[in-house]
């Protein structure tokens, strides 16, 4: 028998858990923010989290305003954020184009919600009253916004998550330039100063408008040497400069799509007049999640890692084993993506969890991959890779993250980042799915990641076009490491 005080202590602890557990509201709506497994729609958003519905958010809702306040305040001091601030140092009010949110509901079988029996209290007879409650990990918010009357501020996208304690964390902030004249047209449509305001007003918040062939935000001209002038200051930076890019022989970008193995046709940045021209530099690192945290060396390890990234000075980084760990709240945690953004603040970034595997139903642990870029990230998406739970080397959910990046060297390049499983059978299956995903995007492509494979493995040979898997052969890729570091090396 337990003593009465022990029962009271237990009840108090359970009620605290319930209070924490009950603090996140269930949400409903429509899902439209993500791409899923190549074979079709998936019941999960990522490993351990059900693919719930997305609910559109009103622009004046309190939770959206809280999300924006957190994200914009956190990023406004970033040297490359392009977030306009006024003379008092406050963030200018943005125009919200689209905002939605979804609940992160835990599942341990990738199909049904996980429930726990929560003690609600006692009835009149002193009996415990319990109820089954779904395990909710948090909320995810997706917001598109812009400042139409501020030139060169661009089109911004943010992903923010809220944990059970109602604290916010940034998973992504990207932005890219748009045609300012088109921005002004859309602004006049919204405020009613255009002749067809009533007819066109709904297009302002319709995501289809960004895909319309008549409303393209990608500036193209007949001369790739044209450099628009600007005289705008955003966050203390005078942007009165000429930004230009030229390709080999000055040929049109539309007629020259290069793959990484074609050195003769590779795009070059030979005629840019404002900076030292160089080839596109990419790097990939497994950041080793929060390992060494408990030993006390994590802080120094990550500090050294930040210095390494600054010294490397890559245009694009691909990171694997990036974590969010609810229990690492005190010391540089719990959101590694946000911490990395403080170490290399000049980069835009996208973090996408691949797997949720909390130690218990009251913790929250997510691990995935991230892409950081010096250059504008125009769009991003991901797919879930298939897994076979009976295979001990394939128990973790894997993904392939994609980012469309506007670079001065190659114009738009499609970058893919992944972390393949330990099982060779699973790797051979997943590389076919990645190849199918890659082919849905125009060249040039860059694939990087932790492949958990050696250069002579079947998966790596397949990606290099030297091996066939399932009657499929890739074309256009070259293993950059072995090309720059020929084997054998003595």
What are the main properties of this structure?
490 residues; alpha+beta; 9-stranded mixed beta sheet; 4-stranded mixed beta sheet; 9 helices
Please characterize this protein's 3D structure.
This protein has 490 residues and is α+β, with helices and mostly antiparallel strands. Helices cover 20% and strands 27% of the residues. It has 9 helices and 19 strands. The strands form 5 sheets. A 9-stranded mixed β-sheet has the order 3-4-7-8-9-14-15-13-12, covered by helices on one side. Strand 8 and strand 9 form a beta hairpin. 34% of the residues are buried. About 23% of the residues have low confidence.
The low-pLDDT segments are: 13-40, 193-277
| Beta-strand proportion | 25-35%
Q: Give the N-to-C terminal Cα separation.
A: 71 Å
Report the biggest beta sheet as strand number plus sense, adding barrel if it closes: 9 strands, mixed
**What oligomeric assembly is this protein in?**
single chain
Number of separate strands: 19
Spatial strand sequence of the major β-sheet = 3-4-7-8-9-14-15-13-12
């Amino acid at each position: 028998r337990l003593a009465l005080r022990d029962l009271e202590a237990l009840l108090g602890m359970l009620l605290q858990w319930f209070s924490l557990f009950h603090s996140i509201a269930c949400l409903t709506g429509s899902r439209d923010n993500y791409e899923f497994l190549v074979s079709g729609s998936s019941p999960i958003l990522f490993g351990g989290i059900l693919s719930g519905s997305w609910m559109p958010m009103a622009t004046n809702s309190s939770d959206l305003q809280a999300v924006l306040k957190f994200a914009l305040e956190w990023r406004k001091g970033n040297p490359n954020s392009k977030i306009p601030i006024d003379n008092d140092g406050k963030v200018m009010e943005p125009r919200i184009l689209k905002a939605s949110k979804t609940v992160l509901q835990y599942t341990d079988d990738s199909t049904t919600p996980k429930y726990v029996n929560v003690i609600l209290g006692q009835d009149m007879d002193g009996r415990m009253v319990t109820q089954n409650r779904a395990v909710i990990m948090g909320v995810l918010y997706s917001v598109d916004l812009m400042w139409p009357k501020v030139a060169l501020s661009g089109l911004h996208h943010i992903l923010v998550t809220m944990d059970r304690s109602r604290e916010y964390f940034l998973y992504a902030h990207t932005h890219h330039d748009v045609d300012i004249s088109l921005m002004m047209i859309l602004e006049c449509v919204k405020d009613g100063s255009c002749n067809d305001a009533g007819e066109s007003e709904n297009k302002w918040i319709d995501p289809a408008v960004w895909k319309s062939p008549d409303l393209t935000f990608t500036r193209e001209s007949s001369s790739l040497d044209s450099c628009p002038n600007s005289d705008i200051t955003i966050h203390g930076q005078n942007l009165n400069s000429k930004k230009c890019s030229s390709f080999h022989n000055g040929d049109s970008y539309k007629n020259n799509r290069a793959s990484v193995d074609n050195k003769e046709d590779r795009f070059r940045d030979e005629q840019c007049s404002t900076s030292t021209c160089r080839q596109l530099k990419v790097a990939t690192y497994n950041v080793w999640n929060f390992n060494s945290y408990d030993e006390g060396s994590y802080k120094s390890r990550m500090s050294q890692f930040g210095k390494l990234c600054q010294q490397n000075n890559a245009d694009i980084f691909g990171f694997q084993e990036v974590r969010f760990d609810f229990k690492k709240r005190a010391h540089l945690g719990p959101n590694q993506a946000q911490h990395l953004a403080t170490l290399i603040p000049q980069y835009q970034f996208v973090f996408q969890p691949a797997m949720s595997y909390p130690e218990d139903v009251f913790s929250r642990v997510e691990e995935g991959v991230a892409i950081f870029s010096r250059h504008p990230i125009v769009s991003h998406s991901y797919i879930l890779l298939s897994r076979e739970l009976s295979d001990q080397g394939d128990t973790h959910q894997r993904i392939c993250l994609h980012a469309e990046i506007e670079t001065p060297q190659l114009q738009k390049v499609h970058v893919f980042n992944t972390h393949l499983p330990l099982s060779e059978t699973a790797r051979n299956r997943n590389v076919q799915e990645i190849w199918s995903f890659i082919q849905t995007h125009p060249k040039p492509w860059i694939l990087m990641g932790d492949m958990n494979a050696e250069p002579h493995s079947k998966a790596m040979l397949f990606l290099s076009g030297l091996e066939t898997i399932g009657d499929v052969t890739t074309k256009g890729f070259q293993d950059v490491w072995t090309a720059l570091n020929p084997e054998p090396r003595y």
